[in-house]
Amino acid sequence: MTRRTLVLWLVTLAMVAVGLSLCVTKFRSNLVEEVPLAGPPSAIESHIEQVQVVRLDTFTGMPVADDEEPVYIGIVVENSPAARPVSGVEDAALVYEVPAEGGITRLLALFSIVPRVPVGPVRSIRPYIIDLAEAHGVPVAFCGGSPAALAMIKQMNYPAVNELVRPAGFFRDSARRAPHNLYASPDALMKRITGAGFATDSGRTGFAYDTVAAIVTGVGVTGPGGTSIGAGSGVDGTDSANLTRLAQGISARMGVNYTVSWAYSAESGAYLRSINGKPDVDRSGEHRLTAENVIVVFARTRVLDDEGRLAVELEGSGKAVVLSRGGITEARWERAAGQPLRVVTEDGSSVPLCPGRTWVHVVDQATRLNVVEG
Questions:
Q1: Rounded Cα distance, 91 and 111, in Å
Q2: Strand pairing partners for 339?
Q3: Is 231 in a helix, a strand, or coil?
Q4: Euclidean distance between CA atoms 374 and 203, whole angstroms
Q5: N or C: which end of the chain has fewer CB within 10 A?
Q6: Alpha-carbon distance values, 109 to 25, 30, 68, 106, 197 (Å)
Q7: Residue among 124, 129, 120 at smallest CA distance from 83
Q8: Does residue 101 contact residue 146 with C-beta atoms inside 8 Å?
Q9: For residues 364 and 255, is the Cβ–Cβ distance under 8 A?
Q10: CA atoms within 13 A of residue 115's CA, in its CB half-sphere
Q11: DSSP code of 237?
Q12: Separation of alpha carbons 350 and 352, rounded Å
């Protein structure tokens, strides 16, 4: 398909969806210009000549500037009370929050840019975290791991960066107590990753982003690093064909004395994260943790040993709930071995996500989810 044909296709689709008053969003570096498509065909043709084909970030569905190259990596981050507030997660494109032993959770933060600040505290890895990282095709940084996880990495010859093997790329912060004081230094970590020959130029995803809306109508979203994309007014939940109902947010107890809630902000088009009723901010105190999409995946879990280590079954399918653009959609998750997780409707079609950051909670099937109605 030629560039001209692709643009014509996008314009046609936008005219059907939006109606008489349309615009095509043209991205140049980090700037966005609106090119009106009102007028005779000759005028529209002249504008089409100016439109550029847009590259999209695999993990966010957002446009990538011509002078930028995505960098896809994963870092395992601790999320116990002693580890909070965490650092660097605000730059992640996609976050999986998974259960760990002791009634706490752990984060797999997936990045499509080099983080701007140190990331951490960095902690140990588990087999199901390796499964998720492999599914997205990224090298992963961590500090130690369960015997099963370390054996899995060795058997797979996985592109792993383990601080316990070699500390290059990491540092200890004397302001915090060990073991909650290990951080990944972005530039040093990238030097170690590239020096090992690990590929970071591509990633995989099973999520479907509403990229036509982002490109054609300029839906306004804020992505990793605070990048502002688009000048549109945003899209509320009523625009989703699979919307179950409007909802302002959710909350759930996801661990011992650990309740997470997300509240939708119509102004920003993102969900604001809180822990135990208090805003969840990064270590700098400057960034509230937010996400354009919040997905809750209900999975079977079971205790494996006296240490309380868990097995989390993330192959097959199960119940899922998706929050996006002020609406909640009851869905199902699907995942085959080695493949990224998908969220689908009853007819098997992907649930469209808003371009931007996505936060995925993996919880036990017995977890009760409280919905704040819209």
A1: 7
A2: none
A3: coil
A4: 35
A5: N
A6: 30, 24, 21, 10, 21
A7: 120
A8: no
A9: no
A10: 26
A11: G
A12: 6
Q: What secondary structure does DSSP assign to 274-293, as a single string?
A: EETTEE-B-TTSS-B-EESE
Q: Report the interhelical angle of 41-48 vs 3-18 (nearest 10°).
A: 130
**Domain boundaries along the sequence of the chain:** 3-53, 235-373
DSSP 8-state assignment for residue 315 = S
The pLDDT tens digits for 49-78 are 454 567 899 999 999 988 889 999 999 999
What pairing do the DSSP bridges indicate for beta strands 228-229 and 245-255? unpaired
Give the CATH number of domain 235-373; options: 3.30.450.20, 3.50.90.10, 3.40.309.10, 3.40.50.720: 3.50.90.10
Q: 268-291 pLDDT, tens per residue?
A: 999 999 999 999 999 999 999 999
Distance from C-alpha of 181 to C-alpha of 174, rounded to nearest angstrom = 7
Over residues 75-105, the pLDDT tens digits come to: 999 999 999 999 999 999 999 999 998 889 9
Helix axes 127-136 and 147-156, enclosed angle (nearest 10) = 30
Encode 258-277: b = buried (16+ Cβ within 10 Å), e = exposed.
bebbbebeeebbbbbbbbee
164-176 tens-digit pLDDT: 999 999 999 999 9
CA separation for the pair 153, 155 (Å, rounded): 6
User: What is the C-alpha separation between 164 and 182, in angstroms, rounded?
Assistant: 11
* Euclidean distance between CA atoms 106 and 72, whole angstroms: 19
Write phi, then psi, for 3 (nearest 5 degrees). Answer: -60, -40
The DSSP output letter for 308 is -
In sequence order, what are the residues at sequence separation of 6 or more whose Cβ sits closer than 8 angstroms to the Cβ of residue 112? 57, 58, 59, 60, 70, 71, 72, 93, 203, 224
- pTM as predicted: 0.81
Residue matched to tokens 């605070």? 226
Phi and psi torsions of 226, nearest 5°:
75, 15
